[in-house]
């Protein structure tokens, strides 16, 4: 059965809201500071007096589509990603589709992003994906796409465009189908293919991106957007003192040349 990893509740009583997160393959898909993304979500919930529950689902473990508000999958080595790809299709695909259909957030970073599509071709081997995003990834014989990256995004419930900044490091080239929207427009860096001008992909509350290093501590506003969408709130989250978070975001932007 999936294992509960973190339970956090405020000391002054039962919280009005609790964010329930399921980390998919936290031991195998976790090579790009992915725990930092989960810890930031927990801290920002705690600072607002909100509850937080983190559950890990590994190989062979089915997930309940109604038991979690946000599903998260990070990046992994090729061998580990191959193990997770088949298991993801065999034991979790239907649940993830059901969760996404009811409005749960599904976030994939790097390798997790690739597995949200239809397939990842590595030479003669093809890893299956869950098909939540209409895309496919192909391992390219050219150089890896590595470096600081920044993209401009426009998301529902937010006024105006925002910037996501971080680091990318991937050998795969991800190709979006004609009707599949990207997450954002590349301002600096390489993005999905190195020359498409697009980075990541989004369909409703399903989000995939190559940006890590890690993603959310450098873009705290995005963590709040994901939390707000996952909980289906009808009012904004309470503001926080984000001086340190804003400085981290500014540093990531500067590293990308913005």
What is the structure about, briefly put?
By secondary structure, this protein is of the alpha/beta class. 26% of the residues lie in helices and 31% in strands.
Describe, in plain words, how this protein is organized in 3D.
- By secondary structure, the chain is of the alpha/beta class.
- It has one domain (3-255): Rossmann fold, CATH 3.40.50.
- The protein is 26% helix and 31% strand.
- The chain is built from 5 helices and 15 strands.
- The strands form 3 sheets. Strands 1-3-2-4-5-15-14 form a 7-stranded mixed beta sheet, with helices on both faces.
- A hairpin with an 8-residue loop joins strand 9 and strand 10.
- The chain is globular, with a radius of gyration of 17 Å.
- The termini are far apart.
- The model has no long low-confidence stretch (mean pLDDT 94).
- Substrate binds at residue 144.
- Its EC number is 6.3.5.13, 3.5.1.2.
- Keywords: Cell shape, Cell wall biogenesis/degradation, Glutamine amidotransferase, Hydrolase, Ligase, Peptidoglycan synthesis.
Structural key phrases:
single chain, 258 residues, alpha/beta, Rossmann fold, 7-stranded mixed β-sheet, 4-stranded mixed β-sheet, 15 strands, 31% strand
What's the layout of helices and strands?
Blueprint: E1 3-8, E2 18-24, H1 34-47, E3 51-57, E4 70-73, H2 78-101, E5 105-109, H3 111-115, E6 119-122, E7 125-128, E8 135-139, E9 145-153, E10 162-170, E11 172-176, E12 184-188, E13 198-199, E14 201-203, E15 206-209, H4 220-231, H5 243-255
Parallel strand pairs: 2-3, 2-4, 4-5, 5-15, 6-8
Antiparallel strand pairs: 1-3, 6-7, 8-11, 9-10, 9-12, 12-13, 14-15
Helix pairs in contact: 1-4
């Amino acid at each position: 059965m999936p294992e509960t990893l973190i339970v956090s509740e405020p000391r002054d009583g039962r919280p009005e809201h609790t964010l329930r997160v399921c980390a998919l393959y936290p031991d195998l898909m976790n090579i790009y500071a992915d725990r930092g993304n989960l810890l930031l979500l927990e801290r920002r919930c705690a600072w607002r007096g909100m509850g937080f529950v983190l559950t890990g689902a590994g190989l062979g473990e089915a997930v309940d589509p109604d038991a979690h508000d946000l599903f998260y999958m990070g990046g992994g080595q090729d061998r580990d990603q191959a193990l997770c790809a088949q298991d993801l299709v065999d034991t979790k695909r239907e649940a993830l589709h059901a969760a996404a259909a009811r409005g749960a957030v599904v976030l994939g970073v790097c390798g997790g992003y690739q597995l949200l599509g239809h397939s990842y071709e590595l030479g003669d081997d093809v890893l299956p994906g869950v098909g939540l995003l209409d895309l496919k990834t192909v391992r390219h014989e050219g150089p890896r796409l590595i470096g600081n990256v920044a993209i401009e995004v426009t998301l529902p419930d937010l006024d105006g465009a925002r910037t996501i900044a971080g680091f990318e490091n991937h050998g795969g080239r991800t190709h979006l189908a004609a009707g599949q929207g990207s997450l954002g427009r590349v301002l600096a860096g390489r993005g999905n293919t190195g020359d498409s001008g697009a980075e990541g992909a989004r369909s409703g509350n399903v989000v995939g991106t190559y940006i890590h290093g890690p993603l959310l501590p450098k873009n705290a506003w995005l963590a709040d957007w994901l939390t707000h969408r996952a909980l289906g709130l009808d009012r904004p989250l309470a503001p926080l003192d984000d001086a340190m978070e804003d400085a981290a975001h500014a540093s990531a932007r500067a590293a990308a040349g913005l």
